[in-house]
Amino acid sequence: MEQAIRNLIKSNGTPFYLFDEKGFIDNYRKLEGIFKAIYPNYQLSYSYKTNYTPFVCQLVRSLGGYAEVVSDMEYTLAKKLGYDNKQIVYNGPSKGEEMFDHLEHQGILNIDSLDEAKRIISYVKGHPDRNYTVGIRINMHVGGDFISRFGLVPESKELQETVSLIKETVNLNLIGLHCHISRSRGVEAWTKRTEIMLKAADDYIDGVPAYISLGSGMYADMPEFLKQQFGGDTVPTYEDYADCTIQPFADHYKDVENQPILFTEPGTTVVARYLSFVTKVLSVKEVRGRYIANMDGDYHNLGEICTMKKLPVTVLSGGKEQHTYTNMDIMGFTCLEQDVLYPGFEQSIAEGDILVFDNVGGYSIVSKPQFIKPQSAMYVLRTNGEVEQIMRAETFDDVFNKFSFKF
């Protein structure tokens, strides 16, 4: 990996992203293998919003994964990559007009609200010669200090009305349920969500559901440095999640001939560790007793995680004499005081050094704004050791072609 990075720096400069294809594949197969060993009808559905790099999404497709999308843009990408609608799961609270195309092609679609249900029912009634299927997103509280805004609450008036309206519509069938909970990654939370979803399936689905989606929010394999910040040995493994989630599901439907598909919708779980960001130290300075290293990348390049945890980082010497600073802040190129890539850095460093930040695959490239500087290029280290570009760096024209210059 280091040699690939140095070769890219020599030929293309910095900053850039580097994706580890082999690491991604190995992790994907490990997760899928553990879950399918308990419940063969398990199906991974990859969260596009986490990292919609087409190379990554196509890699998921080649491994047999479905596409989980939450917008017309993501839906269009999945179709462009060759996905059949039956392998696309359309979720989210703000679906566009493409959801009707998805319905027409028998895709998997989960209703988020009563108003959305009414929109779909109005469309369906306008096409009485065709039959349609939908699922419903279940809202739940499984811990944490926030109220999720997504889905419909079990036993609520809104959910009861939604189910009734669907069942009253002759050519519309309720065949599945979905949930997706953020910020609740522990075993207890996953045990509770599994119990809630199995009960909801028994309460609201006539017969055996075609599918149940338990969403995402699992810890992944991660570097030990990062794992310790999340609780060390208390961080659940894939086997732990299988015991509290996949096994109860298998037990619940053990006597059913046509067992439902069990979805999870991982994003960071499968992709986070396998993207690195490579950035150069432009200057080192001291301001009122505070030591600062200024980089040619910014904190958006790393994703939200760098605002909550310290990411694993490797220093590649640029050849100048290094010094060890006490409590140095690694800062980005933006004119924002909060642009901190790594607070309290205590390794040896010098102007011209390269910092390689790992575990930036989730919510980084999809959240990077065209602010001050455009997006960086991305490369992949292939399983055969070759390096290929999978995203070019954005240019001035990419940013400004959408604006009018007719003054």
UniProtKB/TrEMBL annotation:
<dbReference type="GO" id="GO:0009089">
    <property type="term" value="P:lysine biosynthetic process via diaminopimelate"/>
</dbReference>
<keyword id="KW-0663">Pyridoxal phosphate</keyword>
<dbReference type="Pfam" id="PF00278">
    <property type="entry name" value="Orn_DAP_Arg_deC"/>
</dbReference>
<feature type="active site" description="Proton donor">
    <location>
        <position position="335"/>
    </location>
</feature>
<dbReference type="InterPro" id="IPR029066">
    <property type="entry name" value="PLP-binding_barrel"/>
</dbReference>
<dbReference type="InterPro" id="IPR022644">
    <property type="entry name" value="De-COase2_N"/>
</dbReference>
<protein>
    <submittedName>
        <fullName>Diaminopimelate decarboxylase</fullName>
    </submittedName>
</protein>
<dbReference type="GO" id="GO:0008836">
    <property type="term" value="F:diaminopimelate decarboxylase activity"/>
</dbReference>
<comment type="similarity">
    <text>Belongs to the Orn/Lys/Arg decarboxylase class-II family.</text>
</comment>
<dbReference type="InterPro" id="IPR022643">
    <property type="entry name" value="De-COase2_C"/>
</dbReference>
<dbReference type="InterPro" id="IPR000183">
    <property type="entry name" value="Orn/DAP/Arg_de-COase"/>
</dbReference>
<feature type="modified residue" description="N6-(pyridoxal phosphate)lysine">
    <location>
        <position position="49"/>
    </location>
</feature>
<dbReference type="Pfam" id="PF02784">
    <property type="entry name" value="Orn_Arg_deC_N"/>
</dbReference>
<feature type="domain" description="Orn/DAP/Arg decarboxylase 2 C-terminal">
    <location>
        <begin position="273"/>
        <end position="361"/>
    </location>
</feature>
<feature type="domain" description="Orn/DAP/Arg decarboxylase 2 N-terminal">
    <location>
        <begin position="35"/>
        <end position="271"/>
    </location>
</feature>
<dbReference type="InterPro" id="IPR009006">
    <property type="entry name" value="Ala_racemase/Decarboxylase_C"/>
</dbReference>
